[in-house]
From TrEMBL:
Protein name (database record): Lytic transglycosylase
InterPro entries: Lysozyme-like_dom_sf (IPR023346), MltB-like (IPR043426), MltB_2 (IPR011970), Peptidoglycan-bd-like (IPR002477), PGBD-like_sf (IPR036365), PGBDSf (IPR036366), SLT_2 (IPR031304)
GO molecular function, one term: peptidoglycan lytic transglycosylase activity
Any one of the GO BP annotations: peptidoglycan catabolic process
Pfam families tied to this protein: PG_binding_1 (PF01471), SLT_2 (PF13406)
Membrane-spanning ranges: none
Signal peptide limits: none
Domain Transglycosylase SLT: 45-332
Species of the source: Primorskyibacter flagellatus
Length: 407
C-alpha cells in the first residue's frame, strides 16, 4: 500500500514506498482486546474520552492519562495522506536507480565508519549485517535527516478514530502512553510519519516497546535523536522477525539462455548446487552458502537476476512491497562492497492501464490476481506465470505486451 514520500523522508526520492509492516498488524491484534476493535467513529471528543477510560481500565494512572491526552487533536492532513497514497508501478531497475544515489552510498559509508563500534555490537548481538541496517536507515529517513513532521499522537488517534484500520492504530496509542510514562514520548512534541512511525528507522510505538534498545546507555530509548538506539532497536526487531544470524540475504546471479522458468519466483527453493546444475552461476565470486534459495527475476528472464536466501523473507515483515524489498536488499549488498547489478535487457513492461486490462483478462480466466489495480503484486505475478505456462510461453512471471495480446 503506497505511502507519501515523507514517510521515507527523502527530497531526492520521488518514488513512493509502501506502508510497512505485516508485523505491526499482527502485533496490534495481539495487543488489543476484541471489544476495542469495534470502537471507532463518532465525535472525536467522545472517542478520546473512550480512549482515556480504556487507558485507566488498563491500569494507567488517571493523572498520567489526562496529561497524555491533553494536547491531542484531530489531524485532517493525516487522513488526506492516508487517502492520497499513489499506486506503486515502477519496475525494479527504475526504482533502484531512483532510490540509490551516490550521495546515499557516500553517506552510508561515512555512517558505517562513524558508528563502527555500534555496528560491531549489532553484528555480535543480533547477527544483522551493517549493510542491512544502513539500507533501511537510508531509505526510511536518509540517515535520520527526514523523519516526518506529523504529530505522532495526533496521527495515531486520528487513524484509530477513522474506521478503516482501527485494529492497527488503536493499540499503538496505548503503547505510546506506556512510552510516555517511561519518559520516552512527548505527546505534544513527538513527531514522525503520518502513520505513527517514529525515529531514524521508523518504528511504531508497539514495536519500540517490544524491541527498543538503549544503545547509548542513557537510560532511555530515543529513536529520533540517538543513532545507537535506532540501530540497535532496528537490529533487535529484525532478529525478532526471524533474521538468521550471520546468514546472507541476496546474491546476484547469471542465468543460462534457456531453463525451466516456471521454477523461478519465491515459491520454489533449491540449493545452490541444484541451481548450478540448471546452469545458474554467481555473477562474481563463489556461491555464498548451501542454504535453500529462490531465483528471482523481477523483470523477467532478460533482466536482472538474484538468488534470495531465507533472510530475504524477513524483509517482507518490515515492508510488503516486492520492489522496495528487493531494492533494500540489493542496496545492503552495495553498501558492503557488491558491484552495481547488471540490468540486462528486459522486455518492456506494461503501463498501469495495460496491467489493469491484463488483470481483468486473468480474472476472467479464473486466476486470482487480488485487486485489479494495475500493480504487479504477488498474486498477479503468480497468475502471470501460470497463464504463461498454459499458453506455452516462457513462464518468467513478467507481463509483456505479447502476453496481453495473446489473451
Amino acid at each position: 500500500m503506497p505511502r507519501p514520500r515523507d514517510l521515507i523522508g527523502s527530497p531526492e526520492t520521488e518514488a513512493e514506498t509502501p506502508m510497512r509492516r505485516l508485523t505491526a498488524t499482527l502485533a496490534a491484534l495481539c495487543l488489543t482486546a476484541a471489544p476495542a476493535l469495534a470502537q471507532c467513529g463518532g465525535s472525536f471528543g467522545g472517542f478520546v474520552q473512550g480512549l482515556k477510560a480504556e487507558a485507566v481500565a488498563k491500569g494507567h494512572a488517571p493523572a498520567s492519562v489526562d496529561r497524555f491526552f491533553a494536547p491531542v487533536r484531530h489531524d485532517p492532513a493525516v487522513i488526506r495522506a492516508d487517502r492520497a497514497q499513489g499506486v506503486f508501478q515502477l519496475d525494479f531497475t527504475s526504482f533502484a536507480r531512483r532510490l540509490i544515489s551516490q550521495n546515499r552510498i557516500s553517506a552510508g559509508q561515512a555512517n558505517a565508519k562513524k558508528y563502527d563500534a555500534v555496528f560491531d555490537r549489532v553484528e555480535a548481538e543480533y547477527g544483522v549485517s551493517r549493510g542491512v541496517l544502513l539500507a533501511f536507515w537510508a531509505f526510511e529517513t536518509d540517515y535520520g535527516a527526514f523523519q516526518g513532521d506529523f504529530n505522532t499522537l495526533n496521527a495515531l488517534v486520528t487513524l484509530a478514530h477513522d474506521c478503516r484500520r482501527p485494529e492497527l492504530f488503536r493499540p499503538q496509542i496505548f503503547a505510546a502512553l506506556t512510552l510516555f510514562e517511561h519518559g520516552d514520548f512527548d505527546p505534544a512534541r513527538t513527531t514522525g510519519a503520518w502513520a505513527g512511525e517514529i525515529g531514524m528507522v521508523q518504528m511504531l510505538p508497539g514495536d519500540i516497546l517490544e524491541n527498543g534498545v538503549d544503545g547509548d546507555g542513557d537510560g532511555h530509548v530515543l529513536l529520533k535523536t540517538s543513532a545507537p538506539d535506532a540501530l540497535m532497536s532496528g537490529a533487535k526487531m529484525l532478529r525478532h522477525l526471524g533474521w538468521r544470524a550471520g546468514e546472507p540475504w541476496l546474491q546476484e546471479i547469471v542465468l543460462p539462455a534457456e531453463m525451466d522458468w516456471s521454477k523461478t519466483g519465491l515459491r520454489t527453493t533449491m540449493t545452490p548446487d541444484q541451481w548450478q546444475a540448471m546452469g545458474v552461476r554467481p555473477r562474481s565470486g563463489q556461491w555464498l552458502t548451501g542454504l535453500p534459495a529462490s531465483v528471482i527475476i523481477p523483470q523477467g528472464r532478460k533482466g536482472p537476476a538474484f538468488l534470495a536466501y531465507p533472510n530475504f523473507s524477513v524483509y517482507f515483515e518490515w515492508n510488503q512491497s516486492f520492489t522496495y524489498v528487493l531494492t533494500a536488499a540489493y542496496f545492503a549488498n552495495r553498501l558492503t562492497g557488491a558491484p552495481v547489478f547488471d540490468a540486462g535487457n528486459p522486455e518492456p513492461g506494461l503501463s498501469g492501464a495495460e496491467m489493469k486490462r491484463l488483470q481483468q483478462k486473468l480474472a476472467a480466466r479464473g486466476y486470482d490476481v487480488g485487486d485489479i489495480d494495475g500493480i504487479l503484486g504477488a498474486k498477479s505475478r503468480e497468475a502471470v506465470q501460470k497463464v504463461q505456462q498454459e499458453l506455452g510461453m516462457p513462464a518468467d512471471a513478467w507481463p509483456t505486451a505479447a502476453l496481453l495480446n495473446r489473451l
